[in-house]
Design a protein that fits this description.
Layout: H1 2-11, E1 29-33, H2 35-41, H3 45-54, E2 59-66, E3 69-75, H4 82-86, E4 89-93, E5 96-99, H5 100-103, E6 104-108, H6 113-131, H7 133-141, H8 145-153, H9 156-174, H10 176-196, E7 209-215, H11 222-237, E8 246-251, E9 259-269, H12 278-283
Antiparallel strand pairs: 1-6, 2-3, 4-5, 7-9, 8-9
Length: 284
């Protein structure tokens, strides 16, 4: 569900570039073959395995271009529940269709069961240890008065820090007005410095290159998208500041920033003319 239902719906929302699923196991189906039924129908275990694999797969049919639009063709054969999988066809015997459910039992496999069992076991184990082992260890280790008294006083470092803090606190209380006034002054100075600091996470980049995003209408074919990209390249190359451009159209669906063939990115390095400002160049 996370990979095939929730993730595509989240990626379809505006402002979301990518959705990465972390954790969890893949959904599994258990196919328990019946040896007697396999023998009765003359079906081998390899044939059953091949039928199970073929009953849970999507295939691509390429795409079809018409009037400048691109239409994707897809064959959907993925099993979404037990009923879909057990209806898979193995072969025909004497004109009778033998399906997976005729020779095996299909069950919804383990999804989060191992994780749930491990969690419950660890919680129960910790509870047993807390009410049995921990009190026994405490009765043996925490019965010496001298040791407990020594631990309550702390280590040498703790006693030294406590002593130094007490002396500093007593002096601060004697000059309370001076301490408060100094704190307020430092706070005001920090406010002045705060409003003079930069507010951007990264400094402004000046790499001397334009990155232009060209996005056509959804469903635009690769041929039409390529025409649009070439036209934008020609317009950029007419500018004296631009000598070369590079373009990529579309991105693979497993890319971190997947795009359709209707979208393209053009990189255009530029060199400013003598005395020309960057703002004047951008105004073109």
């Amino acid at each position: 569900m996370a990979d095939w239902t929730i993730r595509p719906q989240l990626k379809a929302l505006g402002g979301i570039a990518n959705v990465i699923v972390i954790g969890g196991e893949y959904k599994q189906y258990q196919v328990l073959a019946n040896p007697n039924k396999l023998k009765h129908y003359g079906i081998s275990l390899q044939e059953l395995q091949a039928a199970v694999e073929a009953a849970n797969v999507n295939t691509t049919g390429g795409f079809y271009n018409e009037f400048g639009n691109q239409y994707n063709i897809k064959g959907e054969g993925r099993a979404y529940d037990v009923d879909d999988l057990q209806e898979g066809l193995i072969k025909e015997v004497n004109g009778q269709a033998i399906r997976i459910k005729d020779v095996a039992e299909v069950k919804v496999g383990r999804l989060l069961t191992p994780l749930g069992i491990a969690f419950i076991t660890s919680v129960l184990t910790s509870l047993v240890v807390a009410v049995t082992v921990t009190p026994v260890l405490c009765s043996y280790l925490l019965k010496k008065e001298k040791l407990l008294q020594k631990q309550s006083e702390g280590t040498r470092v703790e006693r030294w820090l406590r002593k130094g803090y007490s002396g500093m606190l007593n002096k601060s209380l004697k000059y309370s007005k001076l301490v408060i006034g100094g704190t307020v002054a430092i706070f005001l100075v920090s406010l002045v410095l705060f409003f003079q600091l930069g507010r951007s996470f990264l400094p402004e980049f000046n790499e001397g290159s334009l990155v232009i995003s060209v996005v056509g209408t959804p469903g635009m074919s690769l041929k039409e998208s390529n025409k649009t990209g070439k036209r934008v390249e020609e317009l950029l190359l007419e500018m004296p500041e631009v000598d070369v451009v590079t373009r990529r159209t579309g991105r693979a669906e497993l890319d971190e920033h997947a795009q359709g063939v209707n979208a393209a990115e053009i990189d255009a390095p530029f060199t400013l003319q003598d005395g020309q400002s960057k703002e004047a160049f951008f105004a073109k």
